[in-house]
Design a protein that fits this description.
heterodimer; A: alpha+beta; Flavocytochrome C3, Chain A, domain 1; Methane Monooxygenase Hydroxylase, Chain G, domain 1; five-stranded parallel sheet; five-stranded antiparallel sheet; B: alpha+beta; Ubiquitin-like (UB roll); Fumarate Reductase Iron-sulfur Protein, Chain B, domain 2; 2 domains; five-stranded mixed sheet; two-stranded antiparallel sheet; 9 helices; 34% helix; elongated
């Protein structure tokens, strides 16, 4: 029944997308207004898709849970967006971006998709510039570039440290322009709580109006989820507080396969948690590792001391000690694991949380001594200010404290080359799908993928689907619509009326986060994963018995919103652990302790695990399907950064 | 740290609201302002009460969702900061805090501390964009932009649409918000072509949403978390041919 076929074109890699485009069916301009598309989420992928489909003349209805489409979490992306313009004449090419992305993903992504992404990257910049996105410029007036981690060319376009904000506002404005057109509508403060299926096809969604609490059904010819990632399963992450898996999880439970749920990226340089009531973590740009030295006290007894009182010989510059060649510049995953290891051994610094200090020092005293305060301020001033505003400590005087935090999920809904899930008529774009980053995402590639999906891929593949499908009429009186509404109302009733209400959604979310962080975070091992699966099952049972939601459901009720999202995170958390347990290898961000080299590098097993792990929902146990990855153009090698 | 909190509670836009006093104890100084409210809400859940509703999302000062007036100041009295970037150590010497929603006719209170800012979306929809066809664009470097203009355009484009400028304005005017978008797009060749029509449409929309006019109080630039200057308003007036 499910459509688990990648639909990759064949032939030379560089011709595949063009050939595929030619083979896709079109819909004539005058007929487009007869087709309705629902888009959930208005981040880079969702907003750019709405703008493009609206421009083409389709009926589009978009929804977001935020109070304005402009606030989607894409807005928080700092660094930049990759594109193969080769303006710097440093040998960049589509092929090189393709290769870097495949290698960065540790050979766990589909070649055809990644090549297409690289191919479309340049056009994104053209589009954004035409919209008035104020990218950084050279004095000549030409666009500026900078280099970014994991590459040897300067291909990153940026707008100071707010590239995500500027690209999103560009897409938001293009979307806003379409809203003047009667075919396009948008509803903010609206959360998708169910996917409506008719004849095994996605035909609509059930939405809760977050202000009135009203539940309504919206039908269409197809549905697109651009609802972002699920790092918040860990409770503490760099994601916005509202980011959640509910839309993708409802799709999973209706039959869409969930791919590589355990592929989650942990960023090494974040401001550490300071207390048990901390609500989120903030990323500090990775560029700080260029000049800062990372250390922890050699003696546990020194951990509570003022760092200035710890003698030089009592400091352990552990990255320099463990990885003499790359030292403080080892890749993200290696650095993150080393920091965790040091803190687990009782050498962490900072406030105690659950009895453990979670932080190490990132020290700039050497570079300040060498270059002078002013030169360092020029380079890192804004980051130092940001750090000081969060922690109240002056990094010019005392070393920063850092700790890794979850911030991106490579896993997501499985999609074919058309970005369609295993459910016909259900598409997924941006971080919500699994498509392009394999087991690890390179910096400045998330914005690129979201916009490539929304501006250039989905509009074409959706048209093809609409042209080829024979769809029955579905309106609000259809039995399946009525059933979906009932499912949502029943679930809300259950959340509001637990048998023995005792604990808030936050309580359960924190518990889940702790389990996942320990078992399915930076390092994973079979025994702990097995235990976590049991613990989560127990947590789930307690949740439904003891969840306490105050207030009423026909109202703006943020406690109820959270409860529903946490319920879905609990189920997803279990699948993340099952996926991590199944994958008996280390690759990219997935580090199984049993499969790491002595220096902490991933030992990939291409013979047995060169596949995408796509999970199908079953009421008892999820069922694994494997999409074998065939490398026709690149030979997988050891991802060696020594 | 212990605090006495007077928090605006309002069932919905049709019912008169009031300050309700709460007490919260043992707050760590590294706790953020919103985390302090989170803790208060946990207390309320424990007491079977409905939580205090307030908007937030990114909690790192970029999404523009958070919106509280604290002791009379939108986003608190710390300069160039959003509410989510305030920490309780900033309130060491103020143990009594008054927390209110944005107050403006065009931002009706939805519930408690949450207001409806969709009027800002309507203003952008009225013309706050470049009318380029999505999906077709010329080569990016075909049109050069001098660095100074690009930097200035960025400074205007950095607006997060939070609405603090409206909340602080005696006229509840959205002129700084409107002017920032007009300036951003006017400074770039892509947006220059339709600048006058854009400015007129956006300003008309601002008025029909019920916002007041600018009468040069300049409070807006003082509370703007992104430090957007009133020189944007001067630029807007030039675009409109008013100067």
């Amino acid at each position: 029944m499910s459509n688990f076929y990648a639909n990759e074109p064949t032939g030379p890699l560089e011709d595949r997308w063009e050939k595929h485009l030619f083979n896709l069916s079109l819909i004539a301009p005058q007929n487009r207004k007869n087709h309705k598309v629902i888009v959930v989420g208005t981040g880079l992928a969702g907003a750019s898709l709405c703008a493009t489909l609206g421009e083409a003349g389709y009926q589009v209805s978009s929804f977001c849970f935020q109070d304005s489409p402009r606030r989607a979490h894409s807005i928080a992306a700092q660094g930049g967006i990759n594109a193969t313009k080769d303006y710097q004449n440093d040998g960049d090419s589509v092929w090189r971006l393709f290769y870097d992305t495949i290698k960065g993903g540790d050979f766990r992504a589909r070649e055809s998709n990644v090549y297409r992404l690289a191919e479309l990257s340049g056009n994104i910049i053209d589009q954004a510039v035409a919209q008035g996105v104020p990218f950084a410029r050279e004095y000549s007036g030409y666009l500026a570039n900078r280099s970014f981690g994991g590459t040897q060319v300067s291909r990153t376009f940026y707008a100071r440290g707010q590239t995500g904000q500027q690209l999103l506002l560009g897409a938001y404005q293009a979307h806003s322009r379409q809203l003047e057109n009667d075919n396009v509508t948008h509803q903010s403060r609206a959360e998708m709580l169910e996917l409506i299926m008719v004849d095994n096809k996605a035909r609509g969604i059930v939405v809760r109006d977050l202000v009135s609490g009203e539940i309504s059904a919206h039908t269409a010819d197809c549905v697109v989820l651009c609802t972002g990632g699920y790092s918040n399963a860990f409770y503490l992450s760099t994601n916005a507080k509202g980011c959640n898996t509910s839309a993708t999880w409802r799709a999973y439970k209706q039959g869409a396969y969930f791919a590589n749920p355990s592929f989650t990226q942990i960023h090494p340089t974040c401001v550490p948690p300071t207390g048990e009531n901390q609500s989120k973590l903030t990323l500090m740009s990775e560029s700080l590792r260029n000049d800062g030295r990372i250390w922890a006290p050699k003696n546990s007894a020194d951990c509570a001391k003022n760092p200035a009182d710890i003698k030089e010989e009592d400091r352990d510059y552990f990255l320099e000690r463990m990885y003499p060649a790359f030292a403080n510049l080892v890749p993200r995953d290696v650095a993150s694991r080393a920091v965790k290891h040091i803190c687990d051994k009782g050498h962490g610094v900072g406030s105690k949380i659950h009895g453990q200090r979670l932080g190490v020092y990132l020290d700039f005293s050497a570079i300040i001594e060498k270059l002078g305060l002013e030169a360092v301020a020029e380079k890192y001033g804004n980051l130092f200010d940001m750090y000081q505003s969060i922690t109240g400590e002056d990094p010019y005087q005392t070393p920063m404290k850092i700790y890794p935090a979850p911030h991106y999920t490579m896993g997501g809904l499985w999609v074919d080359y058309n970005l369609m899930t295993t459910i016909e008529g259900l598409f997924a774009g941006g971080e919500a799908n699994f498509s392009d980053h394999g087991a690890n995402r390179l910096g400045a590639s998330a914005l690129m993928q979201g916009l490539a999906d929304g501006y250039f891929v989905l509009p074409k593949t959706i048209a093809n689907y609409l042209a080829k499908s024979v769809l029955t009429d579905v309106d609000d009186t259809h039995p399946q619509v009525i059933q979906s509404l009932k499912t949502v109302k029943d679930r809300i009733h259950q959340l509001m009326n637990a048998p023995a209400p005792k604990h808030s959604p936050e309580y359960y979310h924190q518990k889940l986060g702790k389990i996942l962080w320990e078992a399915c975070g930076m390092s994973r091992e079979a025994e702990r994963l097995n235990r976590a699966i049991d613990e989560i099952a127990e947590l789930e049972m307690h949740f439904w018995k003891n969840i306490k939601v105050t207030g009423v459901d026909k109202d703006l009720n943020q406690t109820l919103e959270r409860a529903g999202r946490v319920a879905d995170f609990i189920e997803l958390g279990k699948l993340m652990c099952q996926d991590a347990l199944m994958r008996e290898e280390s690759c990219g961000a997935h580090a199984r302790v049993e499969y790491l080299s002595e220096s902490g590098e991933a030992k990939r097993d291409d013979d047995d695990f060169s596949f995408v792990g796509a999970w199908e929902y079953r009421s008892e146990q999820p069922m694994l399907h494997k999409e074998q990855l065939n490398y026709e153009f690149i030979e997988p090698t050891v991802r060696n950064y020594k | 740290m212990n605090f006495t909190l007077h928090i605006w509670r309002q069932k919905n836009s049709n019912i008169q609201g009031e300050f309700v006093t709460y007490r919260i104890d043992n707050i760590d100084e590294d706790t953020s302002f919103l985390e302090m409210l989170d803790q208060l809400n946990e207390q309320l859940i424990a007491q079977d009460q409905d939580c205090i509703v307030f908007d937030y999302d990114c909690r790192e000062g970029i999404c523009g969702a958070c919106s509280l007036v604290i002791n009379g100041y939108p986003h608190g009295d710390k300069k160039a900061t959003t509410t989510c970037q305030l920490y309780m150590r900033d309130y060491k010497h103020q143990t009594e805090l008054w927390v209110e929603p944005w107050r403006a006719k065009s931002f009706p209170v939805i519930k408690d501390l949450t207001v409806d800012r969709s009027s800002f979306d309507s203003i952008i929809q009225s013309g706050g964009y470049v009318s380029v066809h999505t999906g077709s664009a010329p080569e990016a470097n075909a049109l050069l932009v001098d660095k100074h203009s690009a930097d200035e355009a960025f400074n205007s484009a950095t607006c997060i649409g939070c609405g603090a400028c409206v909340a602080v304005c005696p006229n509840a005017s959205a002129t700084l918000f409107v002017a920032a978008k007009i300036t951003h797009l006017s400074l770039l060749p892509q947006g220059k072509i339709e600048e006058k029509a854009r400015a007129q449409k956006m300003l008309n929309q601002m008025q029909s949403e019920g916002f007041g006019s600018c009468s040069n109080h300049r409070h807006c630039e003082r509370v703007c978390p992104k430090g957007i200057s009133v020189s944007n308003i001067t630029k807007m007036n030039q675009v409109l041919g008013w100067t």
